[in-house]
Design brief:
This protein is mainly alpha-helical and about 90 residues long. Helix 1 packs across helix 3 and helix 2 packs antiparallel against helix 3. The longest helix has 29 residues. It starts with a helix and ends in a 10-residue tail after the last helix.
Length: about 90
């Protein structure tokens, strides 16, 4: 089941990484977090393994976009030079 989560994340990460988004990162992060929360809540009521695998794959698809948006938010709000390596 964890592999389904990883598969969804990998597929969504490849898709998000290859297209240009027009929405601000905060909107993307909120949308992905909402998607993840709804799918995980639905997953709590499911007992069939096949349906669990499908829902976990879809929930995993929210992880990569959420992570990308979080990194964009960090980059936008971090002080200039904060990510530079220090001697």
């Amino acid at each position: 089941m964890l592999a389904c989560l990883g598969l969804g994340s990998a597929l969504a990460g490849a898709r998000v990484g290859t297209r240009h988004r027009t929405a601000p990162p905060a909107t993307g992060c909120l949308a992905a977090l909402t998607w993840l929360a709804m799918l995980l809540a639905l997953l709590a009521a499911v007992l069939a393994p096949l349906l669990m695998a499908i829902l976990l794959t879809l929930a995993g698809a929210a992880f990569a976009p959420m992570t990308v948006c979080l990194f964009e938010l960090l980059d936008a709000h971090a002080p200039r030079g904060a990510w530079a390596s220090r001697p």
